[in-house]
Amino acid sequence: MYQMGNWLKKLGKNISGSNGVFMFIRAQFSSQAASIVDFATTVLLVKLFGVFYLYATFIGSVCGGIVNCSVNYSWTFKSKECKKLHVGIKYALVWTGSIALNTSGTYFMTETFMKLSWLRKLIEPFVNDFFIIPKIIVSLLVGFFWNYQMHRLFVYKNIDIRNSLWKNNKPQTF
C-alpha cells in the first residue's frame, strides 16, 4: 500500500510538474488567448483599416506575443524564480524567431497557394481573405514546434547561460 501511495504521488508530480500534461494544457490555453488577440488584431487591421496582410500579421503577432509572455510567466510555467528581465530578454529572442517564422511562413504559403488557381477557386467561396488559411496553418506549426519547445526549455527556465556555454573558461563545442 505504501508503494502505491508513492507511485500515485510520483504520477501526480509528473503530470502536473514542469514538464507534465497540465503544463502543456496551460500552455495551450495561453497560446489560444494570444492567438485570439493576434488574429483579431490582424483581421481588424486588414478589414477595417486596409492594412496589407503582411504588416497586419506582424502587428498581430506582436500584440499576441505580449499577451502570451505575460500569461506564461505568471500562470503557465510559474517561473517566479526567474528574473523578469532575463525572461524578457530570452522571450524577445525566441519571439523574434517566432515573428519571423509566422510572417515569412504566412507570406510564402499565401503566395504559393495563390498560384494554384484550382485551390484558390475551391477556397474563395468560403473565405474572403485567402491569407487566413495559411496564417492558421503556419501559426499552429510555429506554436507547437518552435514557441512551446523554446518556452519550455529555454525562456522560462532559470539557467545561467554564461556558465552553461563556458565551463572552465573554455567554450563548449556543439
Structural class: mainly alpha
The number of helices is: 7
Spatial strand sequence of the major β-sheet: 1-2
The whole-number mean of residue pLDDT values reads 82
The CA-CA distance between the termini, in Å, is 47 Å
- Helix and strand run: HHHHHHHEE
Low-confidence stretches: none
Shape: elongated
Number of strands: 2
Helix content: over 70%
Radius of gyration: 20 Å
**Which band does the percent of strand residues land in?**
under 5%
Biggest sheet character: 2 strands, antiparallel
What does this protein structure show overall?
The protein has 174 residues and is mainly α. It is 78% helix and 2% strand. It contains seven helices and two strands. The protein has helices at 2-16, 21-49, 53-76, 84-114, 117-123, 132-155, 161-165; strands at 166-167, 170-171. The chain has a two-stranded antiparallel ribbon with strand order 1-2. A hairpin with a 2-residue loop joins strand 1 and strand 2 (170-171). Helix 2 (21-49) packs antiparallel against helix 3, helix 3 (53-76) runs antiparallel to helix 4 and helix 4 (84-114) packs antiparallel against helix 6 (132-155). The chain is elongated, with a radius of gyration of 20 Å.
Topology:
Elements: H1 2-16, H2 21-49, H3 53-76, H4 84-114, H5 117-123, H6 132-155, H7 161-165, E1 166-167, E2 170-171
Antiparallel strand pairs: 1-2
Helix pairs in contact: 2-3, 3-4, 4-6
Labels describing this entry:
elongated, 7 helices, two-stranded antiparallel sheet, mainly alpha, 78% helix, 174 residues, 2 strands, single chain
